[in-house]
Design a protein that fits this description.
73% of the residues lie in helices and 0% in strands. The chain is mainly alpha-helical and 488 residues long. The longest helix has 29 residues, at 456-484. The relative contact order is 0.14. Among the domains are: 1-84, no CATH class; 92-332, no CATH class.
C-alpha cells in the first residue's frame, strides 16, 4: 500500500469519534450546538492525524471541506467557505512556508554541510567536542530552518553518521556503542532545544504565538525578537548541559577523536572554496536576522518596522533574483506547500473554536477542576505544564498536540492567576521540549532512531531524563531570566 493511501482502520476510528461526539454526547450547558459540532470535527481531525489515516495535507483538505459543507461557522454557504479558507490568509503560516523554501538553499548550495564540518574541525578533538559541534551547527541553522526535521534529520544527521562511520561505529557492525549511539542521541536532543529558541525554528511555533494572542485579547503578541531574547539564556544553558547528560547516561567507548578533525577538514576540502551562491545565502540570512530582530524599528522608529512574513518574502525574492534558488526549486519544496495547507486548516479550526466559545468552556472546566484541588497559581502552573507536556506520549505530531491542548491549558492557567507572559513562554518551551520523549514525537525522531544506533529502551530513557533536565532549566534559569526581563 502506498504511503499516501487511505488507511481504513484509523479513518474509521476518527469517523467514529466524530460521530460519537456529534450525535452521542449531549451538548453541554453553555455551549452552542454548532460550536460542539465543530469540536467533534476538530477532535476527529486530530484523531485522523494521530492515526495517520491519510497524509496530513489530505486530512486538512477534508477538514476544510467538512467545515464549509456543514456550515458550522456560518449558515450562509459563501460565508462558510470563506471561513473554511480563512487560514490561508494567516501571515504566520506563510512565514513558516516561505522559511522552509529559503532553507532549501542550505542543502542546494552545501552551506549547511559546510557549517557542520567547520565546527567539527574546530571542536572535534574529543567525542564530547563533536557533540558540541553538532549542537552549535544546528543552533546556527535553527533561526532559518522552520522544518526541525530538515535541520536535525536532513542536514545534521548525515554529518553525524559520516563521523560515526569514520570511527568504525555503525549499527550494521554492532559497534554503535563506540561513538555512534552518543552522537545520535546528541544529534536528536539538540533538536527540541533549538526548536524552542526561535519562532522560526519549528513549524508549530507561530501557532503558539497566535493562541497566546487570542487568549489574551492580543495583549501579549510575541514578536520574533521577544521570543528569541526570552529563550536565549535557558536555551544556551540547555545546550551546554545536554551533551554532558548524554555522556553520563551512555558514555561512548571512544573518547579521543582527533581523527574527526582531519575527517572534517577533508570534507571541507572536497566542498572547495566558499561559492558565490553560499556567500549570497549568508548575506540573505544576515538580512533576515536583521529584520526579524527588529533592528530597523529600534534604530529608526516604529515607522520602519518590517513584518516578519514580509521580511521572509524579501529573503526569498532576493534568492530568486540572485539565482540561488529557482522557481522550480520553490515548487519542488513539497514540505513547504504541505505545511501551508495543513497548518491553514488547523489554525482555521482552532480560531473558530475560540470564536465560538469552546476554548473558554474547556478552560473553565480545567479551571474548576484545579480549584477543587485547592492549588495556588504556582501549583496550577506546575500541574498544567506537566500534564500538557507528558501528554505527548499520546501524540505523534507536535502540531496536533499544540492545536488540541495549548489554548485551553493556557487560558486555564492565566484564569487561575499565572503571569500571562511567563506562562506563555513556559508552555511554548514545553511545546518543543516534549519532542524528547519518544521515537515518534516529531518528524526528526523516526529518522535518527531509524538509523539504528540506539535501542527503544535507551531512546525512551534518554528522552525522559532530558525532558526533566530541559524543563528544570526552563523553569529555574528561564524563570530568573524572565524576571530580570520584567515578564512576571
Amino acid at each position: 500500500m502506498k504511503n499516501d493511501a487511505l488507511r481504513p482502520v484509523p479513518a474509521l476510528v476518527a469517523l467514529a469519534i466524530t460521530l460519537l461526539i456529534w450525535f452521542g454526547i449531549p451538548v453541554p450547558e453553555g455551549v452552542k450546538p454548532n460550536a460542539w459540532h465543530l469540536l467533534a470535527m476538530f477532535i476527529g481531525t486530530i484523531a485522523a492525524i494521530i492515526g495517520k489515516a491519510m497524509p496530513i495535507g489530505a486530512i486538512a483538505i477534508i477538514a476544510i471541506t467538512l467545515v464549509a459543507i456543514t456550515g458550522v461557522t456560518n449558515e450562509k454557504p459563501s460565508a462558510a467557505i470563506a471561513d473554511a479558507l480563512s487560514g490561508f490568509s494567516n501571515s504566520l503560516i506563510w512565514l513558516i512556508g516561505i522559511s522552509i523554501m529559503i532553507s532549501r538553499g542550505l542543502v542546494k548550495t552545501g552551506l549547511g554541510a559546510r557549517i557542520g564540518y567547520y565546527f567539527i574541525s574546530l571542536f572535534g578533538r574529543k567525542t564530547v567536542g563533536i557533540g558540541y559541534a553538532l549542537s552549535i551547527s544546528e543552533l546556527i541553522l535553527a533561526p532559518l530552518t522552520p522544518s526541525n526535521t530538515a535541520r536535525g534529520g536532513g542536514i545534521i544527521h548525515p554529518i553525524m553518521r559520516s563521523i560515526a562511520n569514520s570511527f568504525g561505529s555503525s549499527p550494521e557492525q554492532g559497534t554503535s556503542e563506540k561513538i555512534g549511539r552518543y552522537l545520535a542521541l546528541v544529534n536528536y536532543h539538540t533538536n527540541p532545544i533549538t526548536s524552542a529558541m526561535f519562532i522560526t525554528a519549528t513549524a508549530p511555533n507561530p501557532l503558539v504565538v497566535k493562541l497566546v494572542a487570542e487568549a489574551t485579547g492580543a495583549q501579549i503578541s510575541l514578536s520574533w525578537g521577544t521570543w528569541a531574547l526570552a529563550m536565549l539564556l535557558p536555551g544556551l544553558v540547555a545546550i551546554a548541559l545536554m551533551p554532558l547528560v548524554i555522556l553520563w547516561l551512555y558514555p561512548p567507548e571512544i573518547r579521543d577523536t582527533r581523527d574527526a578533525r582531519t575527517f572534517a577538514l577533508s570534507r571541507l576540502a572536497e566542498l572547495g572554496p566558499v561559492k558565490t551562491s553560499e556567500k549570497i545565502l549568508l548575506g540573505v540570512f544576515a538580512w533576515l536576522l536583521f529584520l526579524w530582530a527588529g533592528i530597523p524599528d529600534m534604530i529608526a522608529g516604529a515607522a520602519y518596522a518590517v513584518d516578519a512574513t514580509t521580511a521572509a518574502m524579501s529573503g526569498l525574492a532576493l534568492l530568486l533574483l540572485a539565482g540561488v534558488l529557482t522557481w522550480d526549486d520553490v515548487l519542488a519544496e513539497k514540505s513547504a506547500w504541505d505545511t501551508i495547507t495543513w497548518f491553514s486548516a488547523l489554525v482555521m479550526m482552532a480560531t473558530f473554536l475560540n470564536k465560538l466559545g469552546i476554548i473558554f468552556w474547556l478552560s473553565s472546566v480545567l479551571q474548576g477542576g484545579i480549584l477543587q484541588l485547592g492549588l495556588g497559581w504556582m501549583g496550577a502552573v506546575t500541574l498544567l505544564t506537566l500534564v500538557y507536556m507528558y501528554a505527548h506520549y499520546l501524540f505523534a505530531s507536535t502540531t496536533a498536540h499544540i492545536t488540541a491542548m495549548f489554548g485551553a491549558f493556557y487560558a486555564a492557567g492565566i484564569a487561575l492567576g499565572a503571569p500571562p507572559m511567563a506562562f506563555a513562554l513556559l508552555l511554548a518551551a514545553a511545546s518543543s521540549i516534549m519532542m524528547t520523549l519518544t521515537h515518534y514525537a516529531t518528524g526528526t525522531s523516526p529518522i535518527i532512531f531509524g538509523s539504528g544506533y540506539t535501542t527503544l529502551g535507551q531512546w525512551w530513557f534518554a528522552g525522559l531524563v532530558m525532558s526533566v533536565v530541559n524543563l528544570l532549566v526552563w523553569v529555574l534559569v528561564g524563570g530568573v531570566w524572565w524576571k530580570l526581563l520584567g515578564y512576571w
